[in-house]
Every structure is written in C-alpha cells, then in structure tokens.
C-alpha cells in the first residue's frame, strides 16, 4: 500500500476504507482531530504529477512566508495571476473554501431578512434593449439582428415590478459592467444584491432598511461562520468590522465638511474619488468609532438619470451610498416616478430615450413613489474580510483582461 501511495501525485482523489479513531497524542486546536487506520485504498482520479500551482504554497500566509524566510527556507509566494490562471486549484486552499462559504451565508442572511420583512424574490432579464445605468460601461451584443446590451443592473425592471401586491422586491443575480478600469474593486461581472420598495412617507425608509439589514448580515456571519472567519484570518489577518447598533447617517455635505476640515480638496457638487472615500472612512472611524456608515443627499449631477432630486434643492438628490472600511458597497435612492421628469432627465444624461421607452411608459399608468438600492456581493465579502482585491471573492472573476477559466 505504501508503494501505491508513493506513486500518487498531490491532489489525486482517493477513497479510503479503514477504522476512524482518536489520535494517541493529546488533541490540540491545530492537531489532526482523528486518525484513519487504512485497510484499503482506491485512487478515484489521478492528478498530473507537475501541478501549475502547489495548493500548500497558495495556502501560505504572509506571516508563514516571512517566518520561512527568517528560518532560511524561503517559501514560494504565489502571485495573483498564477492563482487566477489556475483557479480550480487555488480554490482548494482553506481560506478560499471559507470565503465562498461566507459568501453563501451573506446571501442566505440577505434573503432571510428580506423575506421576513415581506419582500418577494424576483428575477429580471439580463438581456436588454438599452442600458440601465447609462455611461459607457455596457456590453453590447446582437440580439437576432437587434442591438442589445447585457444588464448593467436590474434597476429598470425591478422598478417596473413594483405594482399591485408586489410592493417590495429583491433580487440576487448577475450584473455586467464593461468596466475599463482595472482596479482592486471592479469586476466586469458580479453578483448584485438588489432591493426595490414602495415608499410610504419618506425615502429614509430605504435607509432604515439598509441600516437594519446589513448589521443583521454581519452578526449572522459572526454567529454562523466562526471557523470560516478563522480560516480566512489565518491567511489574510483582519479585525472584525466595527459597526454601531444604530447605523450612522451623515449628509454628503457633512462628509465634505469633514474632509475640508482635514485639509482635503473636494468639490461639494462632485463625486468623491476612492482616496477621498478612504480618507472620510478614517475620519468617521476616529470620530464615530464605526466602519459602516451612510452618506445621503448626494449631488444630482453624480447620480443616474432615474434618481429623484431633493424637493427643496434639485442640485441634490434623495440618494445615498453606504461604506464599509471607507469603500462603497451600496448605492441607493428614491426614483423618479413622474414619466415627464424621467424622460427629461434621461435626455439630459444623453440616454437614447427610444431604447428605454417601455420603462418610461410603465410610469404613465400610475406608479407609487418608490426606491431601493444595490450592493455587490463580492465587494461586501471583500470588505467584510478586509481583503485587498475583489478577485479573491469572485469564484471565477471576470475583469477587463480575464475571461477564463
Ligand atoms: O453603484 P451602482 O452602479 O448602482 C446601481 O447599480 C444602482 N442600480 C443601485 C440602485 O439600486 N440604486 O452599483 C451598486 C453596487 C456598488 O455599490 C458596488 O457594491 C457594486 O454594486 N458594484 C460593483 N462591484 C463589482 N464590480 C463593479 N464593477 C461594480 N460596480 C458596482
């Protein structure tokens, strides 16, 4: 049997028959918890002898690599591209196994919370005649001779779904962005966590929901995934997210003021760039002791065409972004439900109104005030575990240069 074992290459899949027993040595947290006294062994699938990536190397933490270097036995450092080129092998590391279990639990908690609040889960089409978010980040394709796009979000259809008894809906589904930016937090395909709901009194109802939903998710992950969090931490050390029982809400103007007081140059009617968002995240953490907060009342000019302007000042809008550790994970807003204003805003934003005429027409038959938000699942998990790249939390990432495996 030993000769047979010696011929097996790493990663081969075997079936063992034997007696499971407790090890003779006393158990410790890191020691093997059981032993198998093998009587028979079958190889179900033999791996090639020369692997393009050794899973033991891919599982090494920075601390482990540093220790090996100190001990004079330098360990292999696996580059991200090597990992992603060989993703089926890379996925076998304990940290990766844990990350996708955490991702699954984020979705479970998202669903659980929304279903308990009377939301209905829906599925909107991913093939569309026009773009849903505007801008150039659209994958265009030929739909049997008709120009079409891949959905940049479920935005337009989730709004059209708000009718009759379907007053509150949500969706977990793929979102496509032809992003040109090659950043640590943009993918060309990601999983959108989207919500849309009727507004009864004020659009702050949506922020109330976000303020309860996400802390619920964070708490459930801590409760349900302690082993997984530990596994991720062993390879990528991080501290648990600091968040308040009542989610902090600041206006965009207050955020700008904090940045200005800290000596940053920011445009009060422009968008925050990644550095300003990070800086504001630090300032908020120092002042309010939270790494999860919302900014609302964004300038209209930096929001999509369908965003409702503020009643008292149309330079601002009934919209918000939510941040984890200084990076955006959610954007949300009240939508324009007046078809004339919607058409005007679409034209002003350079959108070909013909391609979204069925969307605009949907509001000509009476539509309740409504709003919602969208989050990116990969980004939520990345920031929850303070990882430095969104590709780590996408099973098979798609970015401007990567379409395989
Ligand atoms: O900010 P975005 O583009 O907003 C929308 O799609 C709106 N329809 C949402 C709404 O209901 N108002 O995207 C929402 C979230 C972002 O906050 C971010 O977490 C994620 O989706 N996201 C991306 N994740 C990965 N790669 C990208 N290229 C992303 N673009 C947005």
UniProtKB/TrEMBL annotation:
Domain Aminoacyl-transfer RNA synthetases class-II family profile: 100-397
Keyword Transport: no
Enzyme class name: ligase
Claim: Cytoplasm is one of the keywords in the record: yes
Annotated compartments: Cytoplasm
Pfam families reported for this sequence: tRNA-synt_2
Entry keyword set: Aminoacyl-tRNA synthetase, ATP-binding, Cytoplasm, Ligase, Nucleotide-binding, Protein biosynthesis
Segments traversing the membrane: none
This enzyme's EC code(s): 6.1.1.12
Catalysed conversion reaction: tRNA(Asp) + L-aspartate + ATP = L-aspartyl-tRNA(Asp) + AMP + diphosphate
Entry similarity comment: Belongs to the class-II aminoacyl-tRNA synthetase family. Type 2 subfamily.
Protein's recorded name: aspartate--tRNA ligase
């Amino acid at each position: 049997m030993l000769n047979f074992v010696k011929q097996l290459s790493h990663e081969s899949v075997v079936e063992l028959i034997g007696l499971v027993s407790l090890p003779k040595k006393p158990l410790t947290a890191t020691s093997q918890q059981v032993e198998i006294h093998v009587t028979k062994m079958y190889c179900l699938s033999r791996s090639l002898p020369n692997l393009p990536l050794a899973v033991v190397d891919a599982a090494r933490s920075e601390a482990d690599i540093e220790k090996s270097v100190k001990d004079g036995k330098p360990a292999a450092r696996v580059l991200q591209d090597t990992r992603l080129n060989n993703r089926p092998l890379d996925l076998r590391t304990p940290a990766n196994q844990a990350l996708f279990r955490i991702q699954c639990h984020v979705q479970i908690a998202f669903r659980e919370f929304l279903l308990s609040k009377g939301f209905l889960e829906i599925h909107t089409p991913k093939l569309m005649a026009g773009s849903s978010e505007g801008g150039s980040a659209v994958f265009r394709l030929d739909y049997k001779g008709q120009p079409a796009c891949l959905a940049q979000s479920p935005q337009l259809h989730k709004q059209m779904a708000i009718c009759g008894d379907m007053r509150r809906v949500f969706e977990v589904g793929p979102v496509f962005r032809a992003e040109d930016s090659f950043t640590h937090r943009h993918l060309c395909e990601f999983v959108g966590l989207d919500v849309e709901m009727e507004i009864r009194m004020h659009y702050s109802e949506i922020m109330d929901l976000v303020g309860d939903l996400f802390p619920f998710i964070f708490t459930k992950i801590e409760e349900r995934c302690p082993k997984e969090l530990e596994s991720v931490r062993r390879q990528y050390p991080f501290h648990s997210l600091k968040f308040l029982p009542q989610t902090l809400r600041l206006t965009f103007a207050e955020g700008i003021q904090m940045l200005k007081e800290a000596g940053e140059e920011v445009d009060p009617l422009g968008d925050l760039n990644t550095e300003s968002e990070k800086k504001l995240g630090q300032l908020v953490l120092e002042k309010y002791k939270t790494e999860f907060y919302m900014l609302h009342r964004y300038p209209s000019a930096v929001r999509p065409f369908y965003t409702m302007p503020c009643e008292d000042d149309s330079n601002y809008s009934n919209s918000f972004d939510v941040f984890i550790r200084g990076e955006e994970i959610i954007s949300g807003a009240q939508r324009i439900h007046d078809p004339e204003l919607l058409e005007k805003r679409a034209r002003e934003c350079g959108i070909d109104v013909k391609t979204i005429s069925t969307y605009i027409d949907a509001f000509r038959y009476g539509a309740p005030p409504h709003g919602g938000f969208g989050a990116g699942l990969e980004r939520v998990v990345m920031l929850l575990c303070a990882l430095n790249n969104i590709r780590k939390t996408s099973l098979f990432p798609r970015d401007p240069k990567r379409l395989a495996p």
